[in-house]
Specification:
By secondary structure, the protein is mostly helical. The chain contains 12 helices and 2 strands.
Amino acid sequence: MRERAGESRLKIWLLLGANRLHVTAVLALAVFVGFVAAVTLLPKPLTPQLQTGDTIETMFSTMLSAIITGTTLVVTIGQLVLSQENGPLGDQRERMENSMDFRDFTEELIGSPSPADPSTFLRELVGVAQQRAENLREHVSENDADGLRADVDEFTDSLVGNSETVRDQLEGASFGTFDVLFAALNYNYGWKIFQVERIANEYEDDLSDDELALLDELKTALSLFGPAREHVKTLYFEWALVSLSQMILYAAVPALVIAGIMLTVVDAGTFPGQTLGVTNMTLAIGLAFTITLVPFLLFTAYVLRIVTVAKRTLAIEPLILRDSQR
């Protein structure tokens, strides 16, 4: 996925791969260091301003209001997103029937009961597509058209390599972490469907009826991966929003306490002296400010991943939206 997107490894790690709590910690550290550095290095009048009671009161009274308002808003948004899961009995029955129809179709495709574990479910679909691609190459190897054989060989090598990588990533991955969806994003099924359609159209006169049927079977297997991945993505988004609401509520309580303490207790003389050339007052205010920002930093870390995944999966059909893949 990183190679297809043309992005750096660090950017992909920050936006997608890294644990969201680790990203929050990195952002918090950056805020603290940036605040302390700015106050220390900027013109001297800024330091006396931070040491006055008026500045501290204004700063943390604003943060107090922002924490309460922001926490309420984020939790409300999470509840609105989850409200689509609630509904009358008829709607729930329709959801169940659609899900069971999809599982029945998958069972026919893979030749065994559809797995209940999301990672195993996706792994089986990838495995079926890989098996059918290898079967297609075996049949086309006896075809007289050199261009067809070369195209199918190149396509199959690419598909098999991608499939083995994704299957390895899915093995042992647990839903609730990002591992399952991250592996699914690495499988560019849309591009593979386009290649199947291109081969079928470009070599229509050279392909036998059996070979055309094999191409159609491969296209069916690849097409089934799309809605399966979108379903897993939807479930992950809902899971992540619930986790985000919980984390923000957990972080909001100490943030409110710190903001209250800074308002009622701390004044210009509370933290005298210096540490490593930096006034203790600056360090104390910077630390308190960072702690009060943690709910917002958690929101930033989670939403960065959600919007990045959403942007990369806008099209379920074989449409290329990124310039790097054109």
